[in-house]
Specification:
The chain is of the alpha+beta class. Among the domains are: 60 residues; 85 residues, conserved putative lor/sdh protein from methanococcus maripaludis s2 fold, CATH 2.40.420.20; 103 residues. 30% of the residues lie in helices and 39% in strands. It has three helices and 22 strands. The strands form four sheets. Strands 3, 5, 8, 10, 11, 12, 13, 14, 15, 19 and 20 form an eleven-stranded antiparallel sheet that branches. Strand 19 and strand 20 form a beta hairpin. Helix 2 packs antiparallel against helix 3. The chain is rod-shaped. The N terminus is likely disordered.
Length: 373
């Protein structure tokens, strides 16, 4: 190798060495930059992991509950009593005089008119007496006419005339009385209506005061119920009432039409009536009716199930979930209870719209305890 070639080779080696040295420095610089970026990312992740661990610890130390947001609602209170359905005209018909049933002219379900004869008692003896008295009246009347003519002619005495007149009038009165007795042998309907019960048979002995027919007019109906004295100031005419017929599975809304001013001394109740028109063909007298009388109504009320109410020596309270840092906390809220009905209770003080009422898991909570929803 000559000198020129040697110098050329040496220069190339120096250039290659310098080039390698420059690349390593660049690589080192790049690695340092990557190291700084990774260190920053590591620092951020470490902070996030630490924060996550704190949240996990808080969640681990909290109690799982369920909560619902309080919202205003309408609260209604009802008085529930049992009554019965009745016709406005529901009458038991009995005989006016004692006797033996001779004929029955109607059957259960027949429609009848006022004054129509339902049955007839044996009046054979009375009719026989009537025939005798009628025959006697003809004879007595003839004697009276003759005595009257004689008296007008100034023949005979006044006593004879007055005696004949008295006999005639007395017999006429007896005949009218006997006719009334004969009429009492007929049992007539006192109203228009339907025969709902026939409690006699031909040959049976009957008497006054014992109903043997029942005639009901269902063109006008009413529900009758006895209300406890304690509600006398809360139940008035015009109050809305829901009528439920268990046998028919039907419900009707109506209003109280009358309320008695008399408290029964025996059971300490007063009677109310709800008049209504028949809406179903299968209404029957004495059918059971459940009356739900709306005696209290509150608009925009705070209501909740009664089983959420707890009690201690200080009174009634509920638990509300309040937002804390970093989790929710259970807060004990004293409450004032108003009316209650059908498992729901009105809260008059202690809760407001937007409160998160704890509805599950509240029984073992302590005031201020961490909870999670």
């Amino acid at each position: 190798m000559n000198l020129l070639n040697f110098k050329t080779a040496g220069l190339a080696a120096l250039l290659i060495a310098a080039s390698c040295s420059s690349n390593k420095q660049d690589q080192l610089n790049d690695l340092k930059k990557q190291h700084d970026a990774l260190s920053e990312q590591i620092s951020i992740l470490e902070k996030e992991v630490a924060a996550s661990d704190t949240g996990n610890v808080a969640e681990t130390n909290s109690t799982k509950v369920a909560a619902t947001e309080m919202k205003p609602d309408v609260f209604n209170h009802f008085i529930e009593v049992q009554g019965k359905l009745d016709g406005e005209q529901n009458l038991g018909v009995s005989a006016k005089a004692p006797g033996t049933v001779e004929a029955v002219y109607v059957h259960m379900g027949d429609k009848v008119k006022k004054g129509q004869t339902l049955a007839k008692l044996d009046d054979a003896v009375l009719l026989q007496n009537m025939k005798q008295m009628t025959d006697n009246l003809a004879f007595v009347n003839e004697l009276f006419e003759k005595q009257k003519n004689l008296w007008e002619q100034k023949i005979g005495s006044e006593v004879q005339y007055l005696s004949a007149k008295n006999n005639k009038e007395s017999l006429e009165n007896s005949i009218r009385t006997l006719q009334d007795q004969i009429n009492m042998m007929k049992i007539d309907s006192p109203i228009d209506g339907t025969v709902e019960d026939v409690a006699i048979k031909i040959g049976q002995s009957v008497g006054p005061g014992l109903p043997i027919f029942r005639v009901v007019n269902f063109n006008s109906m009413k529900v009758v119920a006895d209300i406890a004295e304690a509600y006398s100031s809360r139940v008035t005419v015009g109050d809305e009432v829901i009528l439920y017929f268990p046998d028919l599975q039907k419900e009707i809304t109506a209003k109280i039409s009358s309320a008695s001013k008399f408290i029964g001394p025996q059971n300490r109740t007063f009677q109310i009536e709800v008049r209504l028109k028949p809406e179903f063909n299968n209404f029957k007298a004495n059918m059971i009716v459940v009356l739900k009388i709306n005696d209290y109504r509150a608009e925009n009320a705070m209501t909740l199930p009664v089983n959420l109410i707890q009690n201690d020596k200080n009174g009634s309270f509920v638990f509300v979930a309040e937002r804390g840092n970093p989790s929710f906390k259970a807060k004990k809220y004293p409450v004032t209870i108003g009316q209650s009905y059908n498992g729901m209770v009105e809260i008059t003080q202690g809760l407001k719209a937007g409160d998160l009422l704890i509805t599950a898991g509240q029984l073992d909570l302590q005031d201020g305890e961490r909870v999670r929803l």
